[in-house]
Design a protein that fits this description.
Elements lengths: L7 H13 L2 H8 L3 H15 L4 E3 L4 E3 L1 H25 L5 E7 L1 H18 L3 E7 L2 H10 L4 E5 L7 E6 L1 E5 L11 E5 L5 H12 L4 E6 L3 H9 L4 E5 L8 E3 L11 E7 L7 H14 L5
Parallel strand pairs: 3-4, 3-5, 8-9, 8-10
Antiparallel strand pairs: 1-2, 5-12, 6-12, 7-10, 7-11
Length: 288
Amino acid sequence: MRSRDLQIDWLKSFVATVDAGSISGATRLVNRSQGAVSLQIQKLETAIGGAVLYRDSRNLNLTPTGSELLIYARKILKLHSEALEVTSGAEIRGQIRLGAPEDYAQAYLSPVIRAFSQRYPNVEILLTCEPSASLISQIESGLLDLALTTVHGNDRGTFLFSEAVHWVATESYETWKKDPLPIAAHDEGSHIRKVVLEVLDQCEKRFKIVYQSPSTAGQIVAATSGIGVAVLTQCSLTPELKVLGKSEGLPHLPSMRVEIIRRKSSENIPSLDAMHDEIIRALRHSNV
């Protein structure tokens, strides 16, 4: 008869794989080799008598059994962590230098920071709101510990979700009918600006940049005042803005991949580990 005990390391590898979206990604979270993570998940599946994950042509997904187990695995690991903290007499303290673009900070990070601060009142959080390119540079130079960013090229951390991007304007001005199209652009060097200009060039759409700023608030002002057509993420849309598309003669914009990245040599720092895990738990889509 097989053992029905669920070892903590098995659960850690399982949850890490779900959070990272892949076994290779889980290696960064549990500090184990890909082979070791795979073996621990296999042992977990043997113990419960069924598969917890399956892979289709593109993605790693939870089985129905895996979906049920994930809920309990997170609870068990949370209680395990709390028990270790209480019995060791350790209390999480420190300072976290956290970065995010303006729109993501307001829409996504605000509730995470609030909940985290209630749980760990002795951790000081310093928040920096700047474009992703700047945040990535600050992570690489060690000026930030963690950052929520739009992916530039190869993945640098743990994938969280895809954020839709839209053309927007105020309907009363019908700015999208002008030729050339007046656009409110993001700052030079930003990923979203590069994508927007490439899409316009590909469809041979005539345009001119009439406003330029990294500020989400500035983009909204440009759109609502009739200066130009702006590009905003889904989370920063406001009721007075009209989402534009093919019917207005504008090309489709691809979604942005958002991930959490951390500076090198920041592992095993309790405050950073706790915030990193909290962001993943709160923001990563439940479907792997």
